[in-house]
Amino acid sequence: MLSLLRDNLVEVLKAVAPLVLAVTLLQLTVIHAPSAQFLQFLAGAALCAAGMLLLFVGIDLGVLPMGRYVGAELPKKGSLTLILTVAGAIGFVTTVAEPDVLILSAQIDEASNGVFARRTVLYTVAFGLAVFASIAMARIVFGWPMRYLLAAAYSLALVLAVIAPPEFVPLAFDSGSVTTGLLSAPIVIAVAIGVSSVLAGRSAVDDGFGLVGFASIGPIIAVLLMGLLG
User: Fold this and answer.
1) What is the Cα 22 distance to its own chain's centre?
2) N or C, which end of the chain has less CB nearby within 10 Å?
3) Nearest Cα residue to 226 out of 96, 92, 116
4) Which domain holds residue 142?
5) Does the pTM exceed 0.85?
């Protein structure tokens, strides 16, 4: 446990320290923000570091091992429907809880003055990822080539981007990028590796990776369809 905390603390400091140093340098040379505001930034950065440390430790300690165990047990039930349903459900609930997705949906709500409601964006993004997470899991079971799935999915996204309302296009692609965050990506990968580990003749490297990039196309397509149907 202590070694896990120490290793993750190093990673957190590497992530947070450059931002703190950059803002501090700007504060001393260019910005000169009020002292209270700068101290508030430092306090916020410290809280972010503490939160990231707890999040990383929690993921390494319990979430990833459980994800791999769930993935390894699903094929033993002999039900493809169960595998796809669980994959979709995990994709949905982790996306709804994903910090990056929550922040983006709140910013969109604020910037659009409520035209794009936070919950509507949040659930649309989560639904899109859930559907494509299920397709990605089916790809592992049936051995479909990932390059064909990626080509088909991105082709559909590009076609929709051409015909969708212009204001939805940047929103859609940002929605796809934020789903590859701290929570959803490692859990989806862990479940996929677990599924792959019990299938004969399969490779965890070939099957477990690439699916996050594929699943992130789902929110792009979902948001573009929301623009077309809305």
Assistant:
1) 27
2) N
3) 116
4) 78-229
5) no
